[in-house]
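Good morning C.,

I know you're traveling, so I'll keep this short. The sequence:
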Amino acid sequence: MSTKVITTIHIKPEQKKKIKTIAKEEGLSFSDTIRCAIDDFLLLKEEKIVNPDELAVLAKEASEAIDRITVKIDKMHETVNAAFKKMEKVK
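The tokens, ready to paste straight into the viewer:
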């Protein structure tokens, strides 16, 4: 186990309540839950992961792109079906 340093932080009562709930659900101690949260926060900062607002914009853009692609695929499908029907008539 790595060495730990005692640190005092001030949090809001509702934060403490939520952290205790999460800790209980995860089967962790309150302190372990805080350490995990800090690790996650540091990982986000180190990897420069985009924030939720940026993710929402990217998700919307991806969804719109998928919709456009779906329309194009449907049109191509109609074209291919029409070509097959013409080929069947030629036989």
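Safe travels,
E.
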